[in-house]
Predict the structure.
Amino acid sequence: MSAIGYKSGKLHIENVALEKIAETHGTPVYCYSAEQIADNFRAWQSALRKVMPDDKFTICYACKANSNLAVMKLLGGLGAGADVVSGGEMHRAFRAGIPGGKMVFSGVGKSEAELATAIKNGLMLINVESGSELRLISKIAQRENTRANISFRINPNVDAKTHAKITTGLRENKFGIDLEDAAAFYREAKAMPGILPTGVSIHIGSQLTDLAPFEEAFTHLAGLVAQLRQQGHAIATLDLGGGLGITYKDEVPPDLGQYAALIRDIILPLGVHVVLEPGRSIVGDAGILLTRVLHKKEGHTKKFLIVDAAMNDLMRPALYGAYHPVIPCNAPAAGQAQAVVDVVGPVCETSDTFLTDTALPENITAGDLLAIMVSGAYGAVMASNYNTRPLVPEVLVHDGKFDLVRKIQKIEDILNDDIVPGWLA
Ligand code: LLP
């Protein structure tokens, strides 16, 4: 069941009319359904519980998808750990009450300060991506009189068959270490005083709609674990990454039950603790970007709906050519005439376009509200102040009520961050 739909002719998120949120907080504004986020998380939990007991897995929510503290707190409360990729995300996870023991630290370029924070806080796993990083971790851990639990992120050279910009498991991608080099890396790690090489990790890409690449990668991983154990390494944890796709247009996402069955068949015989890092599939369909039509404009060849949300608020269409459905907040009447339009933002770039040549009710006009759908993942987190546009606020809907979960930024706040040097004053 989707938490976003029409009731009495008005688009609602749970039991709240989006119109009401726009009246209270203005537009553009991200709106998330707490119930949908929780449902998505519970669907993951229940699929995994069907194949293994609770203490055999940790769902480390990939908070890069949506790191709003309220969202993280909600998920932490349901039992989620966190996959973090920066010191900033780590601090968010701590602030949300997620303990270091349920956190994994991923990312291809971690700084000394970030690694030190991870080590001091006893993170469950640091996913190492290079020899240089390994040596730095050992140095820090020694200084801290401890040994860091690490895994190497293996690049299994598997084609995830997703968008090129979010494919990560091919040899030509910057991520991980080559499968062929893994044995040498583990040997080196085991000899280091500050390192406990107890895990193996992968993440092959995002928005995967086919299970076959997962199957291939898991199979490589299982082979590697057997080899490493033969070589005397005590591998206790496998981090399988994230990447399960969702429906934006007509994609059919992989079935969670079938995904869990792959884990059961390929991974569980190894007797390891399983870490999962889903992001998009937890929050993507739980959010929309609510926007108002500023102007309607008819050119010689095109009709435009110019809305108050822009590429700086939701970058995905401009950056990846991603498709997000746009629907009106007033339900179209039966038989309503349609017009073919482009839905565009006010930013001075042609790439600031949400939809091209799309059919929308002809009577949509300036002042009307539209919902840019499936925007809960990689939306607000990727927003910027481009064109000196305030960062878009966020609202979380729960139990018939809605709360602002990110402040409305004022233009004054943005200007106050710049510093004019004395010689120009
Ligand atoms: N783990 C690691 C190591 C990752 O790099 C990612 C995503 C995830 C987990 C979560 O993957 P998910 O379950 O969300 O697919 N901005 C892009 C997506 C970038 C994904 C980067 N890594 C987009 O808007 O499509």
